[in-house]
Amino acid sequence: MVGFSGLGMDMGTLSRLSSAKTRSISPENFTGEKGRGGMAAEGTGAIHARELGRGWKISPSIDMEPGELRTLADIEGPGAIQQMWMVTNSQKWRSLILRIYWDGQEHPSVEVPLGDFFANGWGIYAHVSSLAVCVNPGRAFNCYWEMPFRERARITLENRDGEPCTVYYQFNYTLTEVPEDCAYFHAQFRRTNPLPYGEVYTILDGVQGRGHYVGTYMAWGVNNNGWWGEGEIKFYMDGDGEFPTICGTGTEDYFCGGYNFDPGSIDPRKPGGYTEYTTPYAGLPQIIRPDGLYNAQQRFGLYRWHIPDPIRFETDLQVTIQALGWRIEKNRRYLPLQDDIASVAYWYQTLPTAPFPALGSRDALDVI
After folding, report:
1. Which CATH number fits domain 1-182: 2.60.120.1390, 3.40.50.1110, 2.60.40.2890, 3.40.50.2300?
2. How far is CA 148 from each of CA 74, 115, 180, 266, 365, rounded to the nearest angstrom?
3. 176/30 Cα distance (integer angstroms)
4. pLDDT at 271 over 80
5. Neighbours of 314 (CB within 10 A)
6. pTM higher than 0.85 for the full model?
7. The domain 183-353: what is its CATH number?
8. CA dist 111 to 70, 117, 343, 357, Å?
């Protein structure tokens, strides 16, 4: 239905006409109404346009006070959000909580700290160049996950920080009929710090309904010396018991890397060490290396999008990953790790959305 329904286009259907209507919400048009953009008489840019007047970038952004919860978009459907762009002057991205509600549901289908949603979980800018998420200089968050809805879409942002912040945003969407077989976009954040010894980290659990899993982002803080990425990711679906249907072979393997993300491990002619990469479907865009004085742990940001290979489920889904390294001894043994691990799971499913686990307090989410 791509191109015919108006939900989205690709290069092969870009020339096809559609009856879908294109709309956009930003601080210059809070409701996205036709012919009502750039009408503001006051806003964050008014002082700069004082000699130019209305229509000259009067309201490019919003200011949010500490503790404020703001509805950024409230759209009557049917339609689909096609692109989201957001920038903020704050880098306390774990204190800015993005939520999205579909079709009047009480519980959000998306509840994720702002940076983690855009594959930047550590409060430090990392360039990301992928099909689903792009993060561009300086600190510009872009999302291209297609998000169809039938009755209503509501997007909110909460400022949990103790300081005010300025937020720029633009949500591009279409108003069009939504095919019956389109599911609803979901994203859920989790964090365990530290992971108890011998326990497996849960990326996603409690999903009920039919759908498909489309992506993982992880902010992984390593609390030990040595290699940390031996753990296997596992997908339990549709009534699986002790053993999953899908079992990976290692953390770097799941994120489409290999051999410790280290080109020098197999080719001594290449520089050794962890190497950043960002590709359409997978990447290690962020490596925060200790400076020998204050930065005690290595920290990594990784993403894997299942766009050409979605993991489909009929009734239920659970996703886990092992935190596993090596013990330093002659006859090597695995070492269960006690790391600071946060994740975002991205998936589509039918409604209703089951309530998510409690997000945790501002302090519990803080990057320490």
Report:
1. 2.60.120.1390
2. 14, 23, 11, 45, 29
3. 20
4. no
5. 11
6. yes
7. 2.60.120.1390
8. 14, 9, 12, 10
